[in-house]
Amino acid sequence: MATIESLGSRLAVVPDADAVIRVKDLHKSYGSYAAVRGIDLTVGKGEVFAFLGPNGAGKTTTVEMLEGYRHRTSGVVDVLGEDPAHPSLAWRARIGLVLQTSKMPPELTVRELVARHARYYPSPRAVDETIDVVGLTDKRDVRSGRLSGGQLRRLDVALALVGDPVLVFLDEPTTGFDPAARRQAWGLITNLRALGKTVFLTTHYMDEAEFLADRVAVIVGGRIVAEGTPATLGGRDGAPCTIRFRRPADPGCPLPAGTRAEDDMIVLHAAEPVQVLAPIFSWAAERHIELPGLEVHRPTLEDVYLALTGEAS
Amino acid sequence: MSTANLVAHELRLAQKVMLRDAQSVFFTIGLPLLYLVIFASFFGDQVGSIPGQPGEMTFATVMTASVVVIGVVSAAFQNLAVTLVQDRENGVLKRLRSTPVRTAVFLGGHVVNALTTAVLLALLVTGVGMLVYDVPALGRRSLAATVTVLVGAVALTSLAVAFTLVIRKASAAAPMTTALTLTLFFISGNFFPGNEPPAVIDFVASVFPVRPFFAAELTAFNPNTVGWGFAWTDLGVLALWGVVGFLVGSRMFRWTPVGEE
Fold first, then answer.
1. Could you tell me if A70 lies within 8 Å of chain B, comparing CB atoms?
2. Are A74 and A14 members of one domain?
């Protein structure tokens, strides 16, 4: 596939042989509206790749083109060695999906549904073990129509896993989960990585992307505006820290050299916080001041994401 | 797992889905029986002639043949089309489409369920007609009655799959199929047999499959029919509809909601 092999240098992050998903110059238009405007990305084998973006950014359109649900307007897409626009049954057998909303016949039980999906695949996982993995063993004989939203999502994950897929697409898998259920789901996704599965994850939760993803891409207005690891996305690793502490109660006390107060707080921005903090600690120790409210704040993934999406839009 | 095994599993699940939904059971099975009880209880003993049929027969005999047709339409067309459209528009089929299940396996389970239900319902209606309303035994015309039910059921399941292409919303599935079938029952004489309809309505009825189906079934039920009771022309029209439905439905069946690719 010459077109795939000639992908741009950005795609070199993942060696060709290890790439599970390769996308080059992907476009999707609906009439005059361009939903996706030239996306390049690669996802390597065994990676957890998080695809982030605000609503309407082209996230689901892109994912559905990779899943084989939508046809692209132009560009090259290769998923597990095939073009998803013309998916074969063998290709579908290697893919597991959790769509944005869980839809299944409410009259069938958890076990009936998981067993049904298992029968479709050439080498499925054990049905009861899969139900156990998603924590629904005590609900296995309950009809899906009587499950809570979180339980339904877990059932959906079980349906995605029971075929023992190589690649799993998880479209907002924890939306609507309570914190405990989200942690459980994270454990499940971490297990997928341990099993060597490749996971393509979309989420609105930055802590989820930070906890789970090896790499992250941010899409805004149909274009990828940043790509990297959660720690380095958008230059996050080199971004200045914010240091803040409450100013001394004694108004006559001089401030540390090079600082100024904002109301009753002293706020500094520093690319190398240790170099800045060392003289402040000396200054405080000499005066027996405890630096009340001291915070050293590196930009979170959410800060970077909001900056990226704010700038781009 | 073989295709036959997979279809058998899909069939069992389709049966469970139908039987666990009380509303579906009532409208598919209960309502046709209710029609029979109401019409046969009021007018069952009356005797008269039906256009195109030899001799005279009881109203109960006519209504039993009519309700067999209504039941088959209800199970093989109406219930199947509504189930498929609702599952498609609600995203159930889209979810299934992510798996390597073949269209023939998925549809096979639903179609065989619809056929089985239609045939069992036809047997039930015929049994009630004979045991409760003194409909004469069919004798050797039983074969024609059975073949007519089978041809009608197969044709109507094909048409149901094709008709799902016309319906664009889950909420419209039941009203649209009900409106269509009720209209066809009225103009085909299923509720008021024996009355000569106006020429235009008569022509429209003759184009659609319900009237040939009813005519063929009534020929088998009519005690005055001579011979085996096969109405070959009517069966031919039904079969033709089935072929059209199959060609359209099998080529254009869609898994994703309308508006999505």
1. yes
2. yes
Residue A197 lies in a domain: yes
Cβ pair B100:A112 closer than 8 A: no
Tell whether A290 and A189 lie within a shared domain.
no
| Domain interval for residue A270 | 240-297
Q: Render each residue's pLDDT in chain A as its tens digit; 313 residues.
A: 333 343 333 344 555 668 999 999 999 999 999 999 999 999 999 999 999 999 889 999 999 999 999 999 999 999 999 999 999 999 999 999 998 887 889 999 999 999 999 999 999 999 999 998 888 999 999 999 999 888 888 899 899 999 999 999 999 888 777 888 788 889 888 988 888 899 999 998 999 999 999 999 999 999 999 999 998 887 777 788 888 888 877 767 777 767 777 778 888 888 888 888 888 888 888 888 888 889 888 888 888 888 888 865 5
Report yes or no: B259 at the A interface, CB cutoff 8 Å.
no
Structural domain total, chain A: 2
Task: Kindly state whether A298 is in contact with chain B, defined as any CB-CB distance less than 8 angstroms.
Answer: no
> Do B101 and A101 count as a contact with CB atoms less than 8 A apart?
no
A58 vs B: CB within 8 A: no
Q: Do A92 and B98 touch (CB under 8 A)?
A: yes
* Spatial contact of A302 and A206, defined as CB atoms under 8 Å apart: yes
On whether both A291 and A212 belong to a single domain, the answer is no
CA–CA distance, A29 with A74 (Å, rounded to integer): 9
Task: Please check whether residue B260 lies inside any domain of the structure.
Answer: no
d(CA A6, CA A3): 5
Q: Which of B104, B89, B94 is nearest to B246 (CA)?
A: B104
Domain with B225 in it: 3-252
8 Å CB contact of B100 and A90: yes
Q: Is the pTM of the predicted complex or chain greater than 0.90?
A: no
**What residues pair up with A267 in beta bridges, in sequence order?**
A244
Paired residues of A243 in beta bridges: A268, A296
Residue reference for tokens 């996706």: A36
Do A171 and A292 lie in one domain? The reply is no
Q: Say if the Cβ atoms of A103 and B91 lie within 8 Å.
A: yes
Q: What's the number of domains chain B is made of?
A: 1
User: Which two tokens mark A301?
Assistant: 């993934």
